[in-house]
Structure formats: C-alpha cells, structure tokens
C-alpha cells in the first residue's frame, strides 16, 4: 500500500509540474503549418535545455554583425502575419539578421492570465535565440516583442545577464501578475528601450502609456522613447510599413551604422 501511495504521489507531483507547461503539441502543429509555408528565411531548431522549439532565421541583405530576436504575442507562432512576419522579413532588408522564435503557448481556450506561469520557460528560449544569433555573427543583439511577447522580453531583461543592446516593446501593457506587467519590468530596465503603440491600441496599452514612461524614469533610463503609430490598432493592420519604419529608424540610431 505504501508503494502505491508513493507512486500516486509521484504521479500527482509530475502532473502538477506540467500543468502550466507550454502546449508542446500545439507548438508542433504550428510548426507543421509554418515550416513548409516560409517564403523568406529558413526554419531552424533551437533547444531550451529540455526540448526543441522553432525559430525562423532571415539573413540580412547586408550583414553588419547585428541581429534581432522577434517574439510574438499570445498563442500564435513565429511567422504570424500580423506584426511578426513584417518585422522579421523587412528588418532583414534594413540589414538586420532576424530570428523569430516560438514562445510558450497554451491551448486556444486559455485566458491571458493563465500564461503567467509560462514566464518561467521564457529565459531559456531567449538565451538560446541570442546564442544562435551570436554564433552566426551577430555581435549586436536587440530584443523585439509584441503584446505578451513584449511582456515576456521585459520580464526576461529584469533578471538576464545576457549582453543585449536594446529592447523594442510593441503594444505592451500592464497586468495583475508582476511577471506579466511590463510597467513594473520597465522600472528595472536601463538599456535603450523603444515603446511603440497604436492610437487605436488596446485600452490597457493606451491607458498605461504614461505609466510606462514614469517607470522608465524610475529606472533612470535616459534612452527610453515612445512612438505612437497613427491609425493603428493593436495588430497594426494596414500600418505594417509605418511600424517597420519606426522600428528600423530607432535601430539604426541605436546601432550607429
């Protein structure tokens, strides 16, 4: 009986550990749909220390030794046509190597607040992406995140010791859980930050514009700037060119070449 109880306890503990793990089956389904449809760039497989995950690497038109890690929003994939694909493809035309990566996801029915525990899985993925870029000649690396991907990148930067040149947060808001709260994360980030949002963005993003600026002030971050994209919603529908231009101009100023 004791043996049975121990087995049950181990099984329960194992299930508890995996309750909030990324939905790897969904990641695999996304990869199956994405890889064969890639028109620009190539699929690469990275490892976070426990399993492989998909990335899409797009070489710069002219390699200047610099790269960006692009991180999508809630529940989607690294070639998502809104925001992610335009950035990963067009920034390569601006001479940045781009690596768009699969972030942890949950089943479609999961609410946004259920993503908080997945933040524990973020750092190994971003570390793997940075290592890949540097191994392929990108000495300068900048993180770019959209929506939940921006919050994940911001949280990562509060604890990471990786050498990163800057951070572009697109459509980042606040949340009750501190891990998901980009406003709180900005209080600890001192590297250059571009905060991008649309004038028709989500209410939570628009309502926290001033809070994000104040948080950067608390951090003493003199290299924090904000750009509002006119006529844009949270997904920059019809405003891809304006988004890419704003990000590319800031990156060019940051890099200085």
User: Kindly, what is the distance between the CA atoms of the first and last residues, rounded to a whole number of angstroms?
Assistant: 70 Å
What average pLDDT do the residues reach? 92
Please work out how many helical segments DSSP would assign. 9
Architecture (CATH level 2) name = 3-Layer(aba) Sandwich
CATH class: Alpha Beta
Shape call: globular
What integer value in Å does the Rg equal?
A: 18 Å
User: Using DSSP, what is the number of strands?
Assistant: 8
What's the arrangement of strands in the largest beta sheet? Answer: 1-2-4-3-5-6-7-8
Assigned CATH superfamily: Alpha/Beta hydrolase fold, catalytic domain
Assembly type of the shown chains?
A: single chain
Low-confidence stretches: 1-20
SSE topology:
Elements lengths: L1 H17 L5 H11 L7 E6 L4 E7 L7 E6 L12 H10 L3 E5 L20 H14 L4 E7 L1 H10 L8 E5 L11 H5 L6 E8 L2 H5 L1 H10 L5 E10 L6 H16 L2
Parallel strand pairs: 3-4, 3-5, 5-6, 6-7, 7-8
Antiparallel strand pairs: 1-2, 2-4
Helix pairs in contact: 3-9
Note the main attributes of this structure.
257 residues; alpha/beta; Rossmann fold; 8-stranded mixed beta sheet; 9 helices; 21% strand; disordered N terminus
């Amino acid at each position: 009986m004791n043996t049975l109880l121990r087995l049950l306890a181990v099984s329960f503990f194992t299930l508890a550990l995996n309750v909030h793990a990324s939905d790897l089956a969904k990641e695999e389904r996304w990869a199956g749909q994405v890889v064969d449809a890639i028109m620009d760039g190539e699929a690469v497989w990275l490892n976070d220390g426990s399993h492989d995950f998909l990335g899409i690497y797009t070489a710069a038109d002219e390699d200047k030794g610099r790269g960006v890690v692009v991180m999508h929003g809630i529940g989607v994939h690294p070639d998502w046509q809104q925001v992610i694909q335009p950035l990963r493809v067009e920034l390569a035309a601006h001479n940045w190597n781009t690596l768009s990566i699969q972030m942890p996801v949950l089943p479609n029915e999961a609410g946004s607040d259920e993503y908080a525990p997945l933040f524990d899985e973020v750092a190994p993925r971003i570390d793997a992406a940075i290592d890949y870029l540097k191994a392929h000649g990108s000495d300068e690396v900048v993180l770019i995140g959209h929506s939940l991907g921006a919050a994940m990148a911001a949280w990562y930067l509060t604890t990471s010791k990786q050498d990163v040149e800057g951070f572009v947060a697109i459509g980042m808001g606040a949340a009750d859980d501190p891990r998901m709260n980009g406003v709180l994360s900005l209080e600890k980030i001192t590297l250059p930050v571009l905060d991008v949002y649309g004038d028709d963005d989500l209410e939570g993003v628009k309502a926290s514009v001033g809070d994000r600026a104040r948080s950067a002030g608390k951090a003493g971050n003199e290299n924090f700037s904000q750009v509002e994209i006119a006529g844009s919603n949270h997904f920059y529908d019809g405003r891809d060119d304006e988004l890419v231009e704003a990000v590319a101009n800031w990156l060019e100023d940051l890099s200085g070449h």
